[in-house]
Amino acid sequence: MDVTSIIDPLNDAQRQAVTAPSQAMLVLAGAGSGKTRVLVHRIAWQIQVLGVSAHSILAVTFTNKAAKEMRGRIEDLLNMSAQSMWIGTFHGIAHRLLRRHAKQAKLPETFQVMDSGDQLRLIKRLLATLNLDADKWPPRQVQWYINAQKDEGIRARHMRETGDPFQRQMLIIYKAYEELCDRSGLVDFAELLLRAHELLRDNPDVLEHYQQRFRQVHVDEFQDTNTIQYAWLRLLTEGKDNIFVVGDDDQSIYGWRGAKIENIYSFQKHYPNHQVIKLEQNYRSTGNILKAANKVISVNDGRMGKELWTDAGEGELISLYASFNEQDEAHFVVDRIRAWVNEGGMRKDIAILYRSNAQSRQFEERLMTTGTPYRVYGGLRFFERMEIKNALAYLRLMSNRNDDASFERVINTPTRGIGTKTIDDIRTIARDQGLSLWAAAIVLINQRTLSARATNALIGFLELIKQLDAQTEGLELYEKVKLVVEKSGLIELYQKDKADKGEEKVENLEELVNAARLFDATSIGDMEDEENLSELDMFLAHATLESGELQGDDFDDCVQLMTLHSAKGLEFKQVFLVGMEEGLFPSQQSVDDVGRLEEERRLCYVGITRAMQRLYLTYAESRRLYGRETYPRPSRFLREIPSEHIQEVRMRATVSHPVTSAKPKALSLQMEGKYKLGQRVSHAKFGEGMVLQMEGAGAQERVQINFKQVGIKWLMLAYAQLDAL
Questions:
Q1: CATH number for the domain running over 384-510+517-523
Q2: Which of 155, 297, 510, 645 is a Cys-bridge partner for 626, taking CB atoms 3.0 to 4.6 Å apart?
Q3: Catalytic residue among 278, 601, 610, 713
C-alpha cells in the first residue's frame, strides 16, 4: 500500500500523531504548526491504512469555513467523496442528531431553529407579555443569561431560588422562555447543544447506536470547547478511548464567551490511557518572533508546556516604538506601512492589531488622510458602529430638525415608550402633508388622537432634543458631544447591557468625545470656508465622509485592522501590535484577576504569533482614550520579552536597547532644527502648547503642537513664529 501522499508531507511529530494506534490522543498544536494538516492526514490514515470506514468518521470543529476546508482537503488527499463522513460544527452535528431523533429528543419533527436575532425578538415579545420593562430587564442581557445557563447544561428546573431579586426574576423569565419555546417548537443555538446532550444521555439505545457508528471522533480547536460540548463528546466516546483532539492551551482566549480551558487539562483525567503529542515546529514566523512569544507565554502557570521553534532562521529583530501619544503612534504605523508599500509590499499582508475596538479610530483617520485603503476585519469602522451612529443622530437632529433619518433612528433609542403605531402615524402625516417627521410629530400631538402615555412620551422626546440644543449652545465641540451622549441616555443604556458588548460600546462613545476634542476643520478640505457651517456641522460631515470611503472589500489590496480576538487563525507578513500599555493591554479589569490576566497573556501570545516576517510593538507615553488623558506604563508583556530580540525605534533615530523600566520615559530625543519632541512652546494666537512631532525639511518643515486652549494643530515652522519656553 502506497501511503507516501499521507505521510511524506509531515514532519516527525506530525507523522507520529497521524500514524499512532487508535487511542485517546491529545495533540498540543502550537501556533502555525500545521494542526489542520494533522487532522486531515489522521483521518486519511485511518481510512486508507487502518481500514476504518468513512461512514464511521466524525470530525467536529467550530466554524463552517473550517469544516468545509477540512472536507475539501480530505477529498483531495484520498480522491474520494467525504459525503458519508459527519464533518461539521458542533451546532451542525447537534442539529443533525436532533432532526434524526426529534421524538426521542421530545421535539416536534417540524421544530424550527432560531438564529440569534430570532431569539432576541422572541425574548422581547416574552418580556412584553410578562409586563417587564425592557430598560430594567434588557433583552440582550436576558438572552446572554439564558444561553450561559444552557452552555453549562443547566435547565430552569435545576435552579433554586435565592434571595437575590435579580436571580429570582431571571429564573422566572427563563422558565417562561422554555415553556414558550416548547409550545412553539422553537430551538435556539444553545438549545441545540444542550438538547443533543440530553438526547444521548437519556436514550441509551440512541447513545449506543452512535457509539458503535462513530469508531473515530476528531475534534479541532479543543481548547475552545465549553461545558456542554465537552460533555456530549465524552458521552459519545465513553469507554472507547477513540477520541483524537487537537488544541493549544496557550491559545485559549475565549473564556468570556464560555470556553473552558479546564477541558484540555481534564482530558488527561477523563481518558487515563491517553497519549500527548506536541507540535512545536512552526512554519509561519521567524526565530526572533517565536522566541519572544515563548518567553511571554512561559510566565503563565499550569501550562502543558511547548517551545515553538523554526528552521527558517532568526529573521529581523522585533521593533519597539515608544510613541509620544496615540496620534504619534498612528503616524508611525501608517508611515511604516507606506514605506512597505513603496518597497513593493502588498497592503493585504499587513495587520494592525489592537485590544479594544475604540483604538481603531486614530488609525482609520490616519489611513484616510494618507489615502491608504483599509478594511476593518470582523467588525465595523468606527463611525459605522451602531452606538456611534446613534450619538451622531442626536447631534444631527439638534442641528437640523428636518433630518428624518436621524429622527427615526433615535425617537425610541433608548426606549421611551414610543411604539411602532405612533411612529407609523407620524410617517403617515409626514407623507400626506409633505412634512418632515419632526413637524409631523407636532401635528400628531396637536390632533390629540394619541393616548396620554404616548403623547407624553412623544412630547418628552421633542423636548429632549430642544433641551440638548439649548444646553450645548456656546460649548466647545467636544463638550457638546459629551453632554449629548450622557443626557440622551445612551451611556446609561449601554452600561446596563451586560451581554452585547455594552462596556465596549460605552468606550466607543467616550472615544467619540475624544474625536470631537481632536477635530480639526482643516482636515476636510475647503469646508471650513463655508460661513454657514458650524463646527458641529463640519464634524458631522467629517464623520459621514469617514464612514464611506476607503473601506476595502475582502479581495482588495488593503491594510487589515482588527482586534486581537479576531486575529486568531490568521497570519500576516507584517504585524503592528499597538497599545501595549498597562490598563489597555492587559486590560484594567484583568490586572487583579490571575485567571483573566493569564488569558490576556495568551491573547498577547496569539497576537505575536500572527506575524510572519516583521513585528512592531508600540505603546504611548500619554494616551487620551475613552475621553480620559492617561500616562500609562508600558505593558508588562513588553518586559517579558528578552532584550536580545528587540530593537527600539525612535523618530528619525534607532537605539538598540529595549524599554525595560516599568516607568514611562519622557521623550527628549533631539529633532532636526530648533525644537525637540516634548518641548513646550508659545504661539501668539493659540497660546502655550507641547511639540508632538515634526515633518519635512527646510521651507516645508512643519510641526504638530498640542495647544492647551485649541487642541492639536499642524503649523508651518517657517511662519509659525514659535517661542520656546
A1: 1.10.486.10
A2: 510
A3: 610
Whether omega for the bond prior to residue 658 falls within 30 degrees of 0, making it cis, is: no
Query: What pLDDT is recorded for position 658?
Result: 41
Q: What is the pLDDT of residue 525?
A: 44
Q: What is the DSSP pairing of strand 86-89 with strand 57-61?
A: parallel
The fold for domain 4-101+194-281 equals: Rossmann fold (3.40.50)
Q: Is the dihedral of CA 108, 111, 116, 118 positive or negative?
A: negative
Active site residue 220: yes
Domain 318-381+548-655 bears CATH identifier 3.40.50.300: yes
Concerning whether 35 is annotated as a catalytic residue, the answer is: yes
Q: Which one from 220, 328, 581, 648 is the annotated catalytic residue?
A: 220
Active-site position among 143, 251, 372, 413: 251
**pLDDT tens per residue, range 448-496:** 888 899 899 999 999 999 999 999 988 988 899 999 999 999 998 888 7
Longest dimension (CA), the chain: 88
Residue environment code for 322-346, b if the CB has 16+ CB neighbours within 10 A, otherwise e: bbbbbbbbbbbbbebbeebbeeebe
C-alpha 438/C-alpha 497 separation (Å) is 29
Marked catalytic residue, from 16, 19, 23, 36: 36
Q: Where would I find the beta strands (DSSP E) of 583-639?
A: 611-620, 623-625, 628-630
DSSP three-state, residue 649: strand
* First-residue to last-residue Cα distance in the chain: 83
* Residue with cell string 425578538: 121
Q: Tens digit of pLDDT for each residue in 179-218?
A: 999 988 899 999 999 999 999 999 999 999 999 999 999 9
The yes-or-no answer on residue 36 being catalytic is yes
Mean pLDDT of 163-170: 89
Q: Which residues pair with 714 in a beta bridge?
A: 704
Give the mean pLDDT of 61-73.
90
Q: Where are the alpha helices (DSSP H) in 216-325?
A: 227-237, 262-270, 287-297
Q: Whats the size of the chain, residue-wise?
A: 725
Catalytic annotation present for 208: no
399 contacts 534 by C-beta, under 8 angstroms: yes
Q: Which CATH class is domain 112-184?
A: mainly alpha
